[in-house]
Amino acid sequence: MTDTKLRTSRMHLLFVLPLVLEVQSISTSHNITYDCTCYEELKIANCTSRNFTHLPAALPPFTEQLDLSLNHLSAIRPRAFHTTRRLRILLLNDNVIAVLADGAFSLLEGLLRLDLSRNRISFLSEGFSQGLGSLRDLSLAENRLTNLDSSFFVHFDALQRLNLRHNAIETIKMRTFVSMSTLRQLQLNSNNLTVLKNGIFSMLRNLEVLYLHHNQIHYLDVGVLSPLTSLALLDLTNNNLSTIQFKTFLSLNTYSTHIMLQGNPWNCDCDLQRVFRKLCNVKRLFLDDYDNLTCVNLDESHRNYTMKEEFCVAEMVTVLVITITVVITVVAAIVMAEKKRKKKNKEKHWTEVGELSCASQD
Ligand SMILES: *[C@@H]1O[C@H](CO)[C@@H](O)[C@H](O)[C@H]1NC(C)=O
Ligand SMILES: *[C@@H]1O[C@H](CO)[C@@H](O)[C@H](O)[C@H]1NC(C)=O
Ligand SMILES: *[C@@H]1O[C@H](CO)[C@@H](O)[C@H](O)[C@H]1NC(C)=O
Ligand SMILES: *[C@@H]1O[C@H](CO)[C@@H](O)[C@H](O)[C@H]1NC(C)=O
Ligand SMILES: *[C@@H]1O[C@H](CO)[C@@H](O)[C@H](O)[C@H]1NC(C)=O
Ligand SMILES: *[C@@H]1O[C@H](CO)[C@@H](O)[C@H](O)[C@H]1NC(C)=O
Ligand SMILES: *[C@@H]1O[C@H](CO)[C@@H](O)[C@H](O)[C@H]1NC(C)=O
């Protein structure tokens, strides 16, 4: 029994050995057998700039890094990478990909980095993230996404960096990022966001860097930043903010957060200046570009104010004048009332005396 087992395993070995040798001999003549430049020792297959319109049919199965950038790929079929399941890095940037089939990457369970930047992706199906539970780094920069749905990113359990820069994103649905409690960096800059609604960043408790610059954000819900308990950098420069609420930033319950706010059309009234002065006094918040915040308001010489400038002096003087006037009025009124009372008392005394005298006279 054991003997036959041993013999069959030996036979397997004998059968497998030449196969391995064959594969190796093929792959030594790699650049002829495969359409790409393959470095066997480095486990790299480099297929960049080959004018491919379809995925190459044959790729070494040992490949861990596959570079398909700068080709003409337009679609990725389901299970497209079934011959190269050991991939750890997959570069698909600079193609014309518009269609990602459900489960396009579903067999790549060890994939760490996926670059899909500079393609024509406008939609992601629920199966997009299927099987990508190990992915750490995803770029969808410079595509055509207009909204982010809660079904786009459901299976990303290990993602640390997500780049959505330079799409045309207008709306982010609630729960879009809920699978991403491991995310550390989120790039949403250069999109078309106008408002940030409560709940869109829930579960992002490990997020350290949030890039939101170059959008058209004019309003943040007061609680939208409160789930971001690890946030170290928030870039809101070059948006459409004219005012902010103190509580919006105070709700950032972090150890220390740097906030960038220049390039917004600040409407610097005294209320907003007060908000900024209070923010500057919050020890854990650092307004790095506070000195550079310019206002849309103009001063007497038609020069723009900066947030730091003391332009509430006139208001303060007015307030002071009013206060002093009120105090004087009140004091005067009290004094007058007191005088009146004393006078009345005196008169009363007299009448009382008079009455008495009248009584005694009677
Ligand atoms: C194949 O690769 C070798 C070096 O790895 C190179 O010298 C040779 O020119 C390549 N052949 C072709 C046809 O590209
Ligand atoms: C592929 O080759 C190009 C140059 O031909 C190089 O710039 C690129 O870094 C290579 N890709 C990988 C993954 O090594
Ligand atoms: C790709 O196509 C361009 C333009 O047609 C051509 O100039 C270039 O040589 C092609 N590259 C390859 C690797 O075939
Ligand atoms: C999105 O914003 C860009 C500038 O960042 C602008 O050119 C484009 O017209 C905007 N698109 C829409 C649909 O608002
Ligand atoms: C900026 O926000 C205001 C509302 O506060 C809006 O009326 C205006 O159109 C916005 N401008 C841009 C360029 O988005
Ligand atoms: C403020 O603006 C000046 C001049 O434009 C620039 O040199 C400086 O780096 C800016 N500071 C910050 C914190 O962005
Ligand atoms: C100065 O204020 C005007 C509006 O009165 C605005 O259009 C302009 O952008 C402001 N300049 C700066 C540098 O903020």
Q: In words, what does this structure look like?
A:
The longest helix is centred in the last third of the chain and has 49 residues, at 313-361. β17, α4 (270-280) and β18 form a beta-alpha-beta unit. The chain has helices at 2-28, 30-33, 246-250, 270-280, 313-361; strands at 37-39, 44-46, 65-67, 75-76, 89-91, 99-100, 113-115, 137-139, 147-148, 161-163, 171-172, 185-187, 195-196, 209-211, 219-220, 233-235, 257-260, 285-287, 294-298, 304-306. The chain has two domains: 27-139 and 148-161 and 168-180, Ribonuclease Inhibitor (Leucine-rich repeat, LRR (right-handed beta-alpha superhelix)), CATH 3.80.10; 193-337, Leucine-rich repeat, LRR (right-handed beta-alpha superhelix), CATH 3.80.10. Residues 1-32 and 351-362 have low confidence and may be disordered. With 362 residues, the chain is of the alpha/beta class. One 2-acetamido-2-deoxy-beta-D-glucopyranose is lined by residues 216, 218, 240, 242. Residues 1-25 form the signal peptide. This is LRRCT domain-containing protein. InterPro entries: Leu-rich_rpt (IPR001611), Leu-rich_rpt_typical-subtyp (IPR003591), LRR_dom_sf (IPR032675), LRR_TM_domain-containing (IPR050541).
